């Protein structure tokens, strides 16, 4: 019995450490003072978060190219430890990512998972369908569109159970 207790104390932390090691590191360094609020919260009182740093992500809704910059509308989702959007939950509001110059829409396809790092630059009233909406604006320093492989990486393909199973890939 004593051997089982000692083994469990050693194996459990090793197993948890091994699973944690599978997760890729965050892609952007979180600076001190980075705002943890989601776009929905910032839209309710943008002056409270003025010029704060954020790392937000979600799904691309659309790209607009203007004469001197581009805007990407994004439906926000919480981020995992690697700063990938987690789509298993409801969206957390929308925001507009502002990029300098021209953003090729093919590089930011509708529905693509994206993470941006940047500074809040106020808000703008707009519409989602026929509904009025307040969009927080993020002046983007860095952005990353995630590939399907990147979204899957770090998610262990391990399952436990009893019985017979068939997996097709």
UniProtKB/TrEMBL annotation:
<keyword id="KW-0449">Lipoprotein</keyword>
<dbReference type="Pfam" id="PF03843">
    <property type="entry name" value="Slp"/>
</dbReference>
<dbReference type="InterPro" id="IPR004658">
    <property type="entry name" value="OMP_Slp"/>
</dbReference>
<protein>
    <submittedName>
        <fullName>Slp family lipoprotein</fullName>
    </submittedName>
</protein>
């Amino acid at each position: 019995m004593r051997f089982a207790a000692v083994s469990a104390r050693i194996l459990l932390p090793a197993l948890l450490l091994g699973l944690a090691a599978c997760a890729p590191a965050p892609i952007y360094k979180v600076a001190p003072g980075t705002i943890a609020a989601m776009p929905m919260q910032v839209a309710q009182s943008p002056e409270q978060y003025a010029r704060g740093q954020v790392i937000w992500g979600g799904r691309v809704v659309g790209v607009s190219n203007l004469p001197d910059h581009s805007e990407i509308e994004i439906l926000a989702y919480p981020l995992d430890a690697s700063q990938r959007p987690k789509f298993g939950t409801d969206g957390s509001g929308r925001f507009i990512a502002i990029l300098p110059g021209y953003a090729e829409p093919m590089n930011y396809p509708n529905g693509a998972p994206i993470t941006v790092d940047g500074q809040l630059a106020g808000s703008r009233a707009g519409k989602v369908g026929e509904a009025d909406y307040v969009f927080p604006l993020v002046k983007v320093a860095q952005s990353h569109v995630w590939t399907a492989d990147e979204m899957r990486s770090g998610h262990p393909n391990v399952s436990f159970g009893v019985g017979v199973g068939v997996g097709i890939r």
